[in-house]
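=== RUN LOG ===
request id: a7f3
mode: sequence -> structure
chains: 1
length: 184
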Amino acid sequence: MEYVIGILLGFITLNFLLKIGFYESFYGILAAGLGCSLFVLAIWPWATEQSKTQIADFLASPERMQDAAVMITLESTVMIAFCFDCFAGLRQHDTFFKRNLTRLLTYYPGILISVVLAYTLTQTIFAFPGTDFRTVAWCFATVTGVGVIGCGWFLKKFLGDNSLRLELLFITNLFIILLGIIAT
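=== RESULT ===
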């Protein structure tokens, strides 16, 4: 089960990095990296209170995993809607609702990255016993910010074709939905 969760978290991270690559300027990617770093710094006191048994109990609870699968499916549905909206970019009748929905889908990076960051922070804290929690959190926040900015920019430049990135985002979301179902 831990392997499935690890693969799922990896796909969620890839999904987030691909999605922030659709921001028009580098400042969007910069804001996403800064937001992830600030999130890590905000939750580190909570993460220090968690234990391995609490996390294992959460992952073993069918009810909680079904709730998580619903959240995963909703997030992936929004991302798939973004993909279809990008494919339908040449629509004839543009309305106020369609423009605002497109804007919302474009700037929504995804909230499941917060679950990935929280889980990874707790695992990092467990990996460094005896080290000051604040130091681990600050180092993790720095690595997270630099990693999100670097990887997001790299994926945007390396996979420069929007249609290729859109296809990867779509396929990644299909895998996320399937792994979310398997995890329950």
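=== NOTES ===
Residues 62-87 form the longest helix (26 residues).
The chain has one domain: 2-183.
=== END ===
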